[in-house]
Design a protein that fits this description.
2 domains, six-stranded parallel sheet, Dihydrodipicolinate Reductase, domain 2, 33% helix, 385 residues, Rossmann fold
Length: 385
Protein backbone atom coordinates (compact mmCIF):
# COMPACT_ATOMS: atom_id res chain seq x y z
CA UNK A 1 0.00 0.00 0.00
CA UNK A 2 1.44 3.35 -1.02
CA UNK A 3 1.87 6.23 1.39
CA UNK A 4 0.78 9.77 0.42
CA UNK A 5 3.48 12.36 -0.25
CA UNK A 6 1.81 15.74 0.16
CA UNK A 7 3.47 18.27 -2.14
CA UNK A 8 3.52 22.05 -1.85
CA UNK A 9 4.71 23.70 -5.07
CA UNK A 10 5.96 27.29 -5.26
CA UNK A 11 5.74 28.79 -8.74
CA UNK A 12 3.31 28.43 -11.63
CA UNK A 13 5.46 29.18 -14.67
CA UNK A 14 7.26 26.87 -17.05
CA UNK A 15 8.82 24.82 -14.24
CA UNK A 16 5.58 24.77 -12.30
CA UNK A 17 3.93 23.07 -15.27
CA UNK A 18 6.68 20.49 -15.76
CA UNK A 19 6.74 19.63 -12.06
CA UNK A 20 2.94 19.40 -11.79
CA UNK A 21 2.81 17.07 -14.78
CA UNK A 22 5.52 14.87 -13.24
CA UNK A 23 3.69 14.52 -9.94
CA UNK A 24 0.47 13.63 -11.73
CA UNK A 25 2.09 11.03 -14.00
CA UNK A 26 4.71 9.28 -11.89
CA UNK A 27 2.47 6.79 -10.09
CA UNK A 28 0.83 5.81 -13.36
CA UNK A 29 4.12 4.47 -14.71
CA UNK A 30 6.34 3.66 -11.71
CA UNK A 31 5.60 1.24 -8.88
CA UNK A 32 6.61 3.23 -5.80
CA UNK A 33 6.07 3.25 -2.06
CA UNK A 34 4.80 6.84 -2.00
CA UNK A 35 2.26 8.57 -4.21
CA UNK A 36 2.43 12.34 -4.71
CA UNK A 37 -0.66 14.29 -3.67
CA UNK A 38 -1.01 17.73 -5.25
CA UNK A 39 -1.90 19.33 -1.93
CA UNK A 40 -1.18 23.05 -2.53
CA UNK A 41 0.53 25.42 -4.94
CA UNK A 42 1.66 28.97 -4.26
CA UNK A 43 2.34 32.27 -6.01
CA UNK A 44 1.77 35.96 -5.22
CA UNK A 45 -0.81 36.60 -7.96
CA UNK A 46 -4.05 35.08 -6.67
CA UNK A 47 -5.89 35.06 -9.99
CA UNK A 48 -3.06 33.26 -11.75
CA UNK A 49 -2.32 30.73 -9.04
CA UNK A 50 -6.02 29.94 -8.64
CA UNK A 51 -6.33 29.26 -12.38
CA UNK A 52 -3.13 27.21 -12.28
CA UNK A 53 -4.42 25.13 -9.37
CA UNK A 54 -7.71 24.43 -11.12
CA UNK A 55 -6.01 23.48 -14.38
CA UNK A 56 -3.51 21.06 -12.84
CA UNK A 57 -5.70 19.66 -10.08
CA UNK A 58 -4.01 21.12 -7.01
CA UNK A 59 -6.31 20.80 -4.00
CA UNK A 60 -5.65 24.33 -2.71
CA UNK A 61 -3.45 27.36 -3.18
CA UNK A 62 -1.63 30.00 -1.16
CA UNK A 63 -0.38 33.48 -2.02
CA UNK A 64 2.26 33.55 0.74
CA UNK A 65 4.96 30.89 0.62
CA UNK A 66 5.53 31.21 4.37
CA UNK A 67 1.99 29.97 5.00
CA UNK A 68 2.61 27.05 2.68
CA UNK A 69 5.76 26.08 4.55
CA UNK A 70 3.94 26.29 7.89
CA UNK A 71 1.10 23.97 6.84
CA UNK A 72 0.98 20.66 8.72
CA UNK A 73 -0.47 18.85 5.71
CA UNK A 74 2.60 19.46 3.52
CA UNK A 75 5.48 16.95 3.46
CA UNK A 76 7.53 18.31 0.54
CA UNK A 77 8.26 21.86 -0.59
CA UNK A 78 9.10 22.13 -4.30
CA UNK A 79 10.76 25.45 -5.19
CA UNK A 80 10.03 26.35 -8.80
CA UNK A 81 10.19 30.13 -8.34
CA UNK A 82 12.94 32.54 -9.55
CA UNK A 83 16.51 32.10 -8.39
CA UNK A 84 16.55 34.92 -5.86
CA UNK A 85 13.81 33.17 -3.83
CA UNK A 86 15.50 29.77 -3.46
CA UNK A 87 17.66 30.61 -0.45
CA UNK A 88 15.03 31.94 1.95
CA UNK A 89 12.39 29.36 1.04
CA UNK A 90 14.72 26.36 1.24
CA UNK A 91 16.10 27.30 4.65
CA UNK A 92 12.62 27.99 6.06
CA UNK A 93 11.31 24.70 4.66
CA UNK A 94 14.21 22.73 6.13
CA UNK A 95 13.74 24.34 9.53
CA UNK A 96 10.06 23.37 9.35
CA UNK A 97 11.11 19.75 8.78
CA UNK A 98 9.92 19.61 5.18
CA UNK A 99 11.63 17.71 2.39
CA UNK A 100 12.93 20.18 -0.20
CA UNK A 101 13.29 19.95 -3.97
CA UNK A 102 14.71 23.02 -5.68
CA UNK A 103 15.05 24.18 -9.25
CA UNK A 104 18.51 24.91 -10.63
CA UNK A 105 20.77 26.73 -10.12
CA UNK A 106 20.59 26.02 -6.41
CA UNK A 107 21.26 29.61 -5.34
CA UNK A 108 22.42 33.07 -6.39
CA UNK A 109 25.98 32.34 -5.25
CA UNK A 110 28.14 29.90 -3.31
CA UNK A 111 27.57 31.55 0.06
CA UNK A 112 23.81 31.09 -0.23
CA UNK A 113 24.25 27.53 -1.52
CA UNK A 114 26.51 26.56 1.39
CA UNK A 115 23.95 27.80 3.91
CA UNK A 116 21.18 25.92 2.10
CA UNK A 117 23.24 22.72 2.22
CA UNK A 118 23.88 23.23 5.93
CA UNK A 119 20.16 23.78 6.56
CA UNK A 120 18.90 20.60 4.88
CA UNK A 121 21.68 18.48 6.34
CA UNK A 122 21.18 19.83 9.87
CA UNK A 123 17.45 19.19 9.58
CA UNK A 124 18.06 15.74 8.11
CA UNK A 125 15.44 16.24 5.38
CA UNK A 126 15.44 14.60 1.97
CA UNK A 127 16.51 17.01 -0.76
CA UNK A 128 17.15 17.11 -4.49
CA UNK A 129 17.92 19.68 -7.20
CA UNK A 130 16.08 19.50 -10.53
CA UNK A 131 19.00 18.83 -12.88
CA UNK A 132 16.53 16.91 -15.00
CA UNK A 133 18.87 16.18 -17.91
CA UNK A 134 20.47 13.44 -15.81
CA UNK A 135 17.16 11.64 -16.37
CA UNK A 136 17.29 11.68 -20.16
CA UNK A 137 17.69 7.93 -20.82
CA UNK A 138 20.47 8.50 -23.37
CA UNK A 139 22.48 10.62 -20.91
CA UNK A 140 21.95 8.04 -18.18
CA UNK A 141 23.17 5.41 -20.63
CA UNK A 142 26.27 7.52 -21.29
CA UNK A 143 26.93 7.47 -17.53
CA UNK A 144 26.52 3.68 -17.57
CA UNK A 145 29.06 3.33 -20.39
CA UNK A 146 31.56 5.51 -18.52
CA UNK A 147 31.07 3.50 -15.31
CA UNK A 148 31.55 0.25 -17.26
CA UNK A 149 34.98 1.47 -18.38
CA UNK A 150 34.04 1.66 -22.05
CA UNK A 151 35.53 5.14 -22.51
CA UNK A 152 38.79 4.37 -20.74
CA UNK A 153 41.11 7.15 -19.67
CA UNK A 154 39.33 10.45 -20.48
CA UNK A 155 41.12 13.15 -22.48
CA UNK A 156 38.53 15.69 -23.63
CA UNK A 157 35.08 16.88 -22.59
CA UNK A 158 33.27 19.51 -24.66
CA UNK A 159 29.83 20.96 -24.13
CA UNK A 160 27.65 23.52 -25.89
CA UNK A 161 24.32 24.99 -24.88
CA UNK A 162 22.96 27.33 -27.52
CA UNK A 163 19.71 29.29 -27.86
CA UNK A 164 18.64 32.38 -29.81
CA UNK A 165 15.64 33.90 -28.04
CA UNK A 166 17.25 37.16 -26.84
CA UNK A 167 18.83 38.35 -30.09
CA UNK A 168 16.13 40.97 -30.66
CA UNK A 169 17.12 44.14 -28.83
CA UNK A 170 13.43 44.93 -28.27
CA UNK A 171 13.05 41.98 -25.88
CA UNK A 172 12.64 43.57 -22.42
CA UNK A 173 14.22 42.39 -19.20
CA UNK A 174 12.58 41.55 -15.89
CA UNK A 175 9.03 40.90 -14.83
CA UNK A 176 7.25 37.60 -14.32
CA UNK A 177 8.17 36.23 -17.75
CA UNK A 178 11.64 37.60 -18.48
CA UNK A 179 13.22 37.53 -15.03
CA UNK A 180 16.07 35.42 -16.42
CA UNK A 181 17.36 38.60 -18.09
CA UNK A 182 17.40 40.50 -14.79
CA UNK A 183 20.59 39.87 -12.80
CA UNK A 184 18.96 40.98 -9.54
CA UNK A 185 16.55 38.05 -9.85
CA UNK A 186 18.52 35.47 -11.86
CA UNK A 187 21.99 36.08 -10.45
CA UNK A 188 23.60 35.56 -13.84
CA UNK A 189 22.67 34.93 -17.45
CA UNK A 190 23.56 31.87 -19.47
CA UNK A 191 26.09 30.75 -16.85
CA UNK A 192 23.47 29.96 -14.21
CA UNK A 193 20.61 29.19 -16.56
CA UNK A 194 22.20 27.02 -19.24
CA UNK A 195 25.80 26.22 -18.35
CA UNK A 196 24.73 25.03 -14.89
CA UNK A 197 23.09 22.10 -16.69
CA UNK A 198 26.23 21.49 -18.76
CA UNK A 199 28.45 21.66 -15.70
CA UNK A 200 26.28 19.27 -13.68
CA UNK A 201 26.27 16.74 -16.52
CA UNK A 202 30.04 17.08 -16.97
CA UNK A 203 30.80 16.51 -13.29
CA UNK A 204 28.41 13.55 -13.21
CA UNK A 205 30.05 11.91 -16.23
CA UNK A 206 33.67 13.00 -15.91
CA UNK A 207 34.29 13.93 -12.27
CA UNK A 208 35.20 17.17 -10.49
CA UNK A 209 36.32 20.33 -12.28
CA UNK A 210 39.41 21.78 -10.61
CA UNK A 211 40.01 25.09 -12.42
CA UNK A 212 38.51 27.32 -15.11
CA UNK A 213 39.32 30.34 -17.25
CA UNK A 214 36.39 32.16 -18.81
CA UNK A 215 35.12 35.01 -20.96
CA UNK A 216 31.60 36.45 -21.06
CA UNK A 217 29.87 39.01 -23.25
CA UNK A 218 26.73 41.14 -23.01
CA UNK A 219 25.85 42.04 -26.58
CA UNK A 220 22.95 44.41 -25.93
CA UNK A 221 23.99 46.79 -23.18
CA UNK A 222 20.59 48.30 -22.35
CA UNK A 223 17.06 46.93 -22.40
CA UNK A 224 13.70 48.27 -21.34
CA UNK A 225 12.53 46.82 -18.03
CA UNK A 226 9.21 45.01 -18.33
CA UNK A 227 7.86 46.46 -15.09
CA UNK A 228 9.08 50.07 -15.16
CA UNK A 229 9.20 50.66 -18.91
CA UNK A 230 12.54 52.41 -18.45
CA UNK A 231 15.76 51.48 -20.17
CA UNK A 232 18.45 50.23 -17.86
CA UNK A 233 21.79 48.49 -18.06
CA UNK A 234 21.82 44.77 -18.80
CA UNK A 235 24.04 43.06 -16.23
CA UNK A 236 23.61 39.39 -17.14
CA UNK A 237 25.98 37.45 -19.41
CA UNK A 238 24.44 36.84 -22.85
CA UNK A 239 27.24 34.46 -23.79
CA UNK A 240 29.94 32.56 -21.94
CA UNK A 241 32.81 30.33 -22.94
CA UNK A 242 35.31 28.71 -20.64
CA UNK A 243 38.11 26.18 -20.51
CA UNK A 244 38.22 23.66 -17.69
CA UNK A 245 40.60 21.18 -16.15
CA UNK A 246 39.18 18.06 -14.51
CA UNK A 247 40.60 16.18 -11.52
CA UNK A 248 41.17 13.12 -13.74
CA UNK A 249 43.58 15.08 -15.94
CA UNK A 250 41.25 15.66 -18.88
CA UNK A 251 40.51 19.04 -20.46
CA UNK A 252 37.14 20.63 -21.14
CA UNK A 253 35.59 23.34 -23.29
CA UNK A 254 32.19 24.86 -22.56
CA UNK A 255 30.21 27.36 -24.62
CA UNK A 256 26.79 28.86 -24.10
CA UNK A 257 24.86 31.72 -25.68
CA UNK A 258 21.37 33.00 -26.35
CA UNK A 259 22.59 34.58 -29.60
CA UNK A 260 23.05 31.50 -31.80
CA UNK A 261 20.56 32.19 -34.56
CA UNK A 262 18.53 29.08 -35.35
CA UNK A 263 19.46 27.21 -32.18
CA UNK A 264 16.50 26.73 -29.85
CA UNK A 265 17.75 24.33 -27.18
CA UNK A 266 20.97 22.93 -28.62
CA UNK A 267 22.48 21.13 -25.63
CA UNK A 268 25.34 18.81 -26.56
CA UNK A 269 28.31 17.07 -24.99
CA UNK A 270 31.10 14.79 -26.16
CA UNK A 271 33.55 12.81 -24.05
CA UNK A 272 36.64 11.35 -25.70
CA UNK A 273 38.73 8.65 -24.02
CA UNK A 274 41.46 6.17 -24.84
CA UNK A 275 38.99 3.34 -25.48
CA UNK A 276 35.93 5.13 -26.82
CA UNK A 277 33.79 8.25 -27.07
CA UNK A 278 30.18 9.31 -26.47
CA UNK A 279 28.27 12.21 -28.00
CA UNK A 280 24.78 13.52 -27.20
CA UNK A 281 22.49 16.20 -28.65
CA UNK A 282 19.32 17.10 -26.73
CA UNK A 283 17.54 17.95 -29.98
CA UNK A 284 17.79 14.20 -30.80
CA UNK A 285 17.21 13.05 -27.23
CA UNK A 286 16.53 9.39 -27.99
CA UNK A 287 19.97 8.89 -29.56
CA UNK A 288 23.37 8.35 -27.99
CA UNK A 289 26.32 8.30 -30.39
CA UNK A 290 29.03 5.87 -29.31
CA UNK A 291 32.47 5.09 -30.72
CA UNK A 292 34.08 1.89 -29.48
CA UNK A 293 37.82 1.48 -29.98
CA UNK A 294 38.51 -1.27 -27.45
CA UNK A 295 36.14 -3.85 -26.01
CA UNK A 296 36.18 -3.42 -22.20
CA UNK A 297 35.45 -7.12 -21.59
CA UNK A 298 38.10 -8.66 -23.83
CA UNK A 299 40.49 -5.73 -23.98
CA UNK A 300 40.78 -6.27 -27.72
CA UNK A 301 40.77 -3.45 -30.24
CA UNK A 302 37.66 -3.36 -32.40
CA UNK A 303 38.48 -4.61 -35.89
CA UNK A 304 39.21 -1.80 -38.33
CA UNK A 305 36.63 -2.82 -40.91
CA UNK A 306 33.76 -2.40 -38.39
CA UNK A 307 35.16 0.57 -36.50
CA UNK A 308 33.01 3.71 -36.53
CA UNK A 309 30.50 5.83 -34.70
CA UNK A 310 27.10 4.27 -34.17
CA UNK A 311 23.82 5.77 -32.98
CA UNK A 312 22.11 3.82 -30.21
CA UNK A 313 18.34 4.27 -30.28
CA UNK A 314 17.78 4.46 -26.53
CA UNK A 315 14.24 3.09 -26.39
CA UNK A 316 14.71 -0.58 -25.50
CA UNK A 317 13.55 -2.06 -22.21
CA UNK A 318 17.16 -2.67 -21.14
CA UNK A 319 17.92 1.05 -21.43
CA UNK A 320 17.58 3.36 -18.40
CA UNK A 321 13.95 4.13 -17.47
CA UNK A 322 12.54 2.79 -20.73
CA UNK A 323 10.96 -0.33 -19.24
CA UNK A 324 8.53 2.05 -17.49
CA UNK A 325 7.31 3.74 -20.67
CA UNK A 326 6.34 2.50 -24.14
CA UNK A 327 7.48 -0.33 -26.39
CA UNK A 328 10.95 -0.30 -28.01
CA UNK A 329 11.22 2.21 -30.82
CA UNK A 330 8.77 4.66 -29.22
CA UNK A 331 10.51 7.74 -27.87
CA UNK A 332 9.84 9.79 -24.77
CA UNK A 333 10.34 13.54 -24.44
CA UNK A 334 11.40 16.47 -22.29
CA UNK A 335 8.53 16.20 -19.82
CA UNK A 336 9.41 12.60 -19.01
CA UNK A 337 12.78 13.64 -17.56
CA UNK A 338 10.92 15.33 -14.71
CA UNK A 339 8.73 12.30 -14.15
CA UNK A 340 11.84 10.12 -14.03
CA UNK A 341 13.37 12.53 -11.51
CA UNK A 342 10.32 12.36 -9.23
CA UNK A 343 10.39 8.57 -9.49
CA UNK A 344 14.04 8.53 -8.42
CA UNK A 345 13.36 10.91 -5.55
CA UNK A 346 10.52 8.75 -4.25
CA UNK A 347 12.60 5.59 -4.71
CA UNK A 348 15.24 7.28 -2.57
CA UNK A 349 12.64 7.88 0.13
CA UNK A 350 11.49 4.26 -0.08
CA UNK A 351 15.03 2.92 0.27
CA UNK A 352 16.31 5.56 2.67
CA UNK A 353 19.33 6.11 0.42
CA UNK A 354 18.35 9.51 -0.97
CA UNK A 355 18.65 10.69 -4.56
CA UNK A 356 21.23 12.58 -6.56
CA UNK A 357 21.81 15.38 -7.21
CA UNK A 358 21.40 16.59 -3.63
CA UNK A 359 21.94 20.16 -2.44
CA UNK A 360 25.53 19.23 -1.59
CA UNK A 361 26.13 17.89 -5.09
CA UNK A 362 24.57 20.99 -6.63
CA UNK A 363 26.89 23.12 -4.48
CA UNK A 364 29.81 21.83 -6.57
CA UNK A 365 28.12 23.09 -9.74
CA UNK A 366 27.47 26.44 -8.01
CA UNK A 367 31.17 26.69 -7.16
CA UNK A 368 32.09 26.23 -10.81
CA UNK A 369 29.51 28.82 -11.94
CA UNK A 370 30.87 31.38 -9.46
CA UNK A 371 34.46 30.62 -10.51
CA UNK A 372 33.51 31.08 -14.19
CA UNK A 373 32.04 34.52 -13.50
CA UNK A 374 35.03 35.46 -11.35
CA UNK A 375 37.44 34.39 -14.09
CA UNK A 376 35.50 36.32 -16.72
CA UNK A 377 36.04 39.49 -14.69
CA UNK A 378 39.73 38.92 -13.96
CA UNK A 379 40.81 37.07 -17.10
CA UNK A 380 42.73 34.62 -14.93
CA UNK A 381 42.48 30.93 -14.19
CA UNK A 382 40.44 30.34 -11.03
CA UNK A 383 40.74 27.20 -8.88
CA UNK A 384 37.58 25.51 -7.64
CA UNK A 385 37.78 25.40 -3.85
Amino acid sequence: MTKPLNVGLIGYGFMGRTHSNAYRQVSKFFDLGHEPVLKACCARNEDKIKAFAENWGWESYETDWKKLVERDDIDLIDIGSPNNTHYEIAIAAAKAGKMVICEKPLAMNVKEAEEMVAAVEEAGVANMVWYNYRRVPAITLAKQLVDEGRIGRPFHYRATYLQDWTINEDVPQGGATLWRLDAAVAGSGVTGDLLAHSIDTAIWLNGPITSVVAATETFIKEREHAETGKKQAVTIDDACMFLARFANGSMGTFESTRYARGRKNFNTFELNGADGSVHFNLEDPHLLSYFEYKNPTTGHKVEDHVTGWRDINVTNFEHPYMDKWWVPGCTIGYEHTFTNAVADFIAGLDSGNGTEPTFRTALETQKVCDAVLESAKSGNWVDIK
